[in-house]
Amino acid sequence: MGESMTEVEYFKPERGQRPGANQDPRLNWWREAKFGMFIHWGVYAIPAGVWKGEHIPGIGEWIMLRAEIPIAEYEQLAGQFNPVKYDADEIVKLAKRAGQKYIVLTSKHHDGFCMYGSAETDYNIVDATPYGVDILKDLAEACAREGIKLGLYYSQTQDWHHPDGYGNTWDFKEEEQDFADYIENYVKPQVREILSNYGPIAIIWFDTPRIIARHQSQELLELVHELQPDCLVCGRLGNKLGDYATAQDNAIPPALQAEIDWETPATINDTWGFKTHDYNWKSTTQLIRNLVDIISKGGNYLLNIGPDAEGAIPQPSVERLEAMGAWLDAHGEAIYGTAPGPIQGVDWCRMTRKDDAAYLHVFYWPASGRLVLPKMDVSAADWLDASVDASLAVNHEGDSTVILGPAAAPNEHVTVIKLSK
Ligand code: FHN
């Protein structure tokens, strides 16, 4: 893909998009999977957006930076972290019910707190919390039992707790920090840990590649591939390295991106880490349309949940994910393992394809019941959802192929019609 406006806007080159991707067979499972669950979880779920009685604007996991909370104060959250409602099986089963095929958990976010038992620091869930359980081990075992791939988010540059990590300007002076030492003697050993102690890891999801040098990104990529050759590295490793491109948060490119493998990370409300006062939940219809829109343009959708301080998943997230799963139960054939369809750029519909079939995903249903498409080589139209009981026909009229259906959409979110030759 060239330096088009689309690339600049949606796949910032400095965030590390690898030209010439879309070939590597290690990504085959991921290309098939289409839909994953992101989990942002850490001690920031305790303040949940509120610090000393004040609502801190912005995303929940950034509260330490936004409120410039001194390390000595923020660290005390670890001593209160006791997520007794955390149930790895329940999370994995929710992902399965939602139709999500992989999970990516924050093993260390920018606040530096490790959600796994690290030998490199005591600032981790096993050593620093009353809970004392390695939640990553539980999640890895649950994923293995349920056949879900597990990926790990790891903040490789920003670490507001480590004296040499990037980003904490209120406890440390940047000119006194040794970022190279942090990468060499902290990040690399930790990446080695998460790739050595928890079985197969499908993805390392690096993020915010600020100030990282090319050789540092390159060495991290090589380390991941040396330890687990099949492990994918997302496009935010930095310096145009990584196995696939990562769109900006919640961004869906306006057109097909056929030349690259890409993924959109996205929120269900406006935050990643749990916030008590974020009620801006996207509707189920919007989430299903985002999924379809992304898949039809060749991408993957990594949709986030932010468990609360007790480890419970917010009910609005559960309800939406289950509703997405119900839609996917009837329409998964038009999503999983598909490629972008032949018709692109029509506002009222999206299209995917598999083998000889094209799948028409209708967002806006015309009252006339006439779905007018550019001419296509198809002779049959069927509802993908076998429970729909309404007539459907295909007509070729001049330069158009017209699908004739009922006056109202059979599905409240997205109706899918399978078109065959
Ligand atoms: O700063 C992070 C943010 O907290 C969150 O993890 C998202 C997920 O894509 N990534 C960064 C912002 O782009």
CATH architecture of the largest domain: Alpha-Beta Barrel
CATH topology of the largest domain: TIM Barrel
Count of domain modules: 2
CATH class of the largest domain: Alpha Beta
**Which percent band covers the strand fraction?**
15-25%
Give the count of helical stretches. Answer: 10
Q: Please summarize the sheet with the most strands.
A: 8 strands, parallel
- Choose one word for the global shape: elongated
Return residue spans where pLDDT drops below 50 for at least 5 consecutive residues.
1-8
Widest sheet: strand ordering: 7-6-5-4-1-10-9-8
- Helix content, binned percent: 10-25%
Q: Average pLDDT, to the nearest integer?
A: 95
- Provide the structure class: alpha/beta
* CA-CA gap between termini: 32 Å
Assembly state (oligomeric): single chain
- Give the ordered list of helices and strands: HHEEEHHHEHEHEHEEEHEHEEEEEEEE
Number of strands: 18
The CATH homologous superfamily name of the largest domain equals: Glycosidases
Bound compounds, each kind once, are: ligand FHN
